[in-house]
């Protein structure tokens, strides 16, 4: 399984970016998918995750609620993260994540988001 992420870059505070991640092959509707991030010198943390395409329950970190929106394209194992009102503290490497079971957990290669003026 490969997770291909795209959409990172440099943006000014208050700006927006959209991250996208596609799983290959298609993982099906029961796979959990989402995004984590890791800032320099910090541990990797949850940003937003979807329990499955079938049930659609989404969890957000408190720090991004109201600013970030997770969405999925169910038929293609694609997960997107729309990030608005970005802050310097959102600067991190963002990792796409997919979970089917304890032995089937996958990570993308990471995409860098830098929020700076």
- Name the overall outline: globular
The biggest beta sheet, please? 7 strands, mixed
Strand content: over 45%
The percentage helix is under 10%
Structural class: mainly beta
Report on this model:
This protein is an all-beta fold and 117 residues long. Helices cover 0% and strands 54% of the residues. The strands form 2 sheets. Strands 2, 4, 5, 6, 9, 10 and 11 form a 7-stranded mixed beta sheet that branches. The chain has a 4-stranded antiparallel beta sheet with strand order 1-3-8-7, with no helix packed on it.
How is this structure best summarized?
With 117 residues, the chain is an all-beta fold.
For this entry, give a set of tags:
117 residues, globular, mainly beta
Fold blueprint:
Blueprint: E1 2-6, E2 9-11, E3 17-24, E4 32-38, E5 45-50, E6 58-60, E7 68-73, E8 78-83, E9 92-101, E10 104-107, E11 111-115
Parallel strand pairs: 2-11
Antiparallel strand pairs: 1-3, 3-8, 4-5, 4-9, 5-6, 7-8, 9-10, 9-11
């Amino acid at each position: 399984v490969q997770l291909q992420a795209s959409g990172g870059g440099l943006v000014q505070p208050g700006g927006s970016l959209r991250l996208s991640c596609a799983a290959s092959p298609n993982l099906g509707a029961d796979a959990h998918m989402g995004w984590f991030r890791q800032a320099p010198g910090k541990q990797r943390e949850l940003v937003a995750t979807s329990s499955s395409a079938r049930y659609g329950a989404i969890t957000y970190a408190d720090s991004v609620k109201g600013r970030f929106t997770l969405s999925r394209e169910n038929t293609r194992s694609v997960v997107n993260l729309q990030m608005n009102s970005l802050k310097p503290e959102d600067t991190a490497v963002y990792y796409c994540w997919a979970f089917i079971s304890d032995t089937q957990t996958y990570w993308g290669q990471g995409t860098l988001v830098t929020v700076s003026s």
